[in-house]
Amino acid sequence: MLPIAFAPSYAHPLPAGHRFPMLKYELLPEQLLREGTTSPADFFVATPPSAADILLVHDAEYYERLRLGQLTRQEERATGFPWSAALFEREVTILGGTIEAARLALKHGVAFNIAGGTHHAFRARGEGFCLLNDQAAAAAWLLAHEPTVNKVLIIDLDVHQGNGTAAIFQHEPRVFTFSMHGARNYPARKEASNLDLPLPDGTDDAQYLQLLASTLPRLLDEVQPNFVFYLAGVDVLATDKLGHLALTRAGCRQRDELVLNLCQRHQLPVVVCMGGGYSERIADIVEAHANTFRVAAGLFN
């Protein structure tokens, strides 16, 4: 089984200007089902978690203002979204889906959130299209509720640094944050992850994969995690409008193979979230994301 959190509402509450990159949340499951990589039984409907679960990593006052639509205009602009009740529901649903995926990964070895990867959300503010930090919340939930989990590794391979996640866990030794990202890309001001690997513009498949292959096995040996979160953004592609790296789809798939192979060999439960992808052609985004699921299906099914 390949458990996948999905909610049809992911794509709909957003203003028209934001809908194109969000279409992948509808098109990707359709593609996976059509080709037989997944079956309808693999999908579960993501639901909002309790406020207590969200408050494991978010400030109560920020959460209440977000829930009630009381963010300032400046705070709203930083997120990139105009507030709406539907947007709030979308964000908490995504977060709940990643927590449920974490529960299921303990049972099945791997689980996905078709959305997720909202790594720019800090404890008390949102930015960069992220209002609540789903992987951070799920990591904190595991540490609070699952006695078998006492060390979490977050592998963030989105092209943008996971600044919110790094800041949330800066004083939490049970979570190790690793971000490999474009050096000159958003955010302009980077936070300090436990390990940051900034990449120059134009980094290609060979350079990227060599660096990752020389880093990740050593990291697993040093950190000794018993749970992994993987942010598998496809904005590393050369076709991406915002990424500035030069990976091919084949290189992106090799990246996924490297990460997921290591998790499977070390018997590490892993939750995968999709993160960013902003290529001109929606087909490039969907196909690159679909490869991540195909790799996992081959390894874990």
Amino- and carboxy-terminal Cα gap: 6 Å
- Give the mean pLDDT: 94
Helix content: 40-55%
Per CATH, the architecture is 3-Layer(aba) Sandwich
Main sheet, how many strands, which sense, barrel? 8 strands, parallel
InterPro entries: HDAC_classIV (IPR044150), HDACs (IPR000286), His_deacetylse_dom (IPR023801), His_deacetylse_dom_sf (IPR037138), Ureohydrolase_dom_sf (IPR023696)
Keywords: Hydrolase
Family: Belongs to the histone deacetylase family.
Protein name: Deacetylase
Structure description:
The structure is a single chain. The chain is of the alpha/beta class. The protein has 11 helices and 8 strands. The chain has helices spanning 19-22, 24-35, 51-54, 60-68, 73-79, 85-108, 134-145, 163-168, 205-223, 249-265, 282-300, and strands at 4-6, 43-45, 110-113, 152-156, 175-182, 195-199, 227-231, 270-273. It has an 8-stranded parallel β-sheet with strand order 2-1-3-8-7-4-5-6, sandwiched between helices. The model is unreliable at 16-20 (pLDDT under 50).
Descriptive key words:
301 residues, alpha/beta, Arginase, Chain A, eight-stranded parallel sheet, 44% helix, HDACs, hydrolase activity
Describe this structure in a few short sentences.
This protein is an alpha/beta fold. Helix content is 44%, strand content 12%.
Write the layout of secondary structure elements.
Layout: E1 4-6, H1 19-22, H2 24-35, E2 43-45, H3 51-54, H4 60-68, H5 73-79, H6 85-108, E3 110-113, H7 134-145, E4 152-156, H8 163-168, E5 175-182, E6 195-199, H9 205-223, E7 227-231, H10 249-265, E8 270-273, H11 282-300
Parallel strand pairs: 1-2, 1-3, 3-8, 4-5, 4-7, 5-6, 7-8
